[in-house]
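In the laboratory, one determines a bound structure by crystallizing the protein with its ligand and collecting diffraction data. In a computational setting the workflow is compressed into a single prediction: the sequence and the ligand go in, and a structural description comes out. We illustrate the idea with zinc ion.
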Amino acid sequence: MITYQSIDLALSDMMAPESVQVPCTTHFNTYHITPDTNDTFLYSSTNGHIQNVCQHDMECHSYTVIELDCPPAGSSGSGTGSSSSGSSDPSNETTSGGGDNNNGSNTDPNDPNDPDIVTAPLIIKKAPCESNKRLEIDDVFKQKMTILKDRASSQSFETLFTVRTGAPSAVTSITDNFDYQHFQGSISKPKVAWNGTGITSVADFKGIIHSHFSDLLPVLSVGDLVDMYYIMKNNAAVTNDFFYGLVNSSGTAYILQIQDRAAFVAFGDRYLSTEGKRFKFTQNQYESRYNIKEGNSNSDNEKGFVKMLSKINSGLQVFKSTDTTYSDYKKLNYINSEVVESDCN
Ligand SMILES: [Zn+2]
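The predicted complex, in structure-token form:
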């Protein structure tokens, strides 16, 4: 299916000025938008050569830009130049209309502020694994996770711990790396956030862990990603081993680790940095594209979440507990349309 949509494109990007012929010439370019990153690629042009084919298992959205290029009236014998306002701004004159079933989420081609996403090369990075392994042998951390498990299954509000390094002089050991602060919601205000509670510096934050009771998503919410994004974007002192964890009402833990901080911040800039973006991201990505919704099965939500992280160049890796002692985690990967667990090595 081809839909039509205007784009912002300089004519000189497409054709040499000397190729313009009088009295009027028509040019078209067909583009496709990748379903995961919303990048735009030239698909074919007037010469009919296919430049790039859609390389995704989901269908790429396509649109065609048609340009009618006419010389100014009187400059040639045709006298038909008024049909076009000139070609310097194709966005004003390209054909437009038709439905885009993507609802235009963050992909408005006319928005010059919409940043390009550069896909990161596939590099296996050990840092997220090492960061997560440290949690597997920290006895106090595991106790906190167990508290969250109990709260998630017994209470209808969230509990949250900030995980910090504490005072520089504090003695740490591999079984007790962190200091914790405890926060919880209430029946009338079930969600809880650490910010707004008097914490003025996050410089020593190492992570956040919290519970989701059964009415909430079994995976991390958009709000959780927003929290993580602001911490990582605005606080250079927070190190790249910062993690964001969750225990859901089934006792399953998911821990997000940073694989590529710059990519994560770019993801947040693109999708999470304003109320409007968050609304669109929730509707168009979480719910529509990746089928992450309250009421779905846990496995469907997990699959959608892992797929979203991998397809959207989030810069994150997600680890899942293998039992409710929180002594072991597997990394979740999205391969061939399935969630595949892997060990850290
Ligand atoms: Zn949450």
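Confidence is low (pLDDT under 50) at residues 1-7, 74-107, 116-124. Keep in mind that any predicted model is a hypothesis to be tested, not a measurement.
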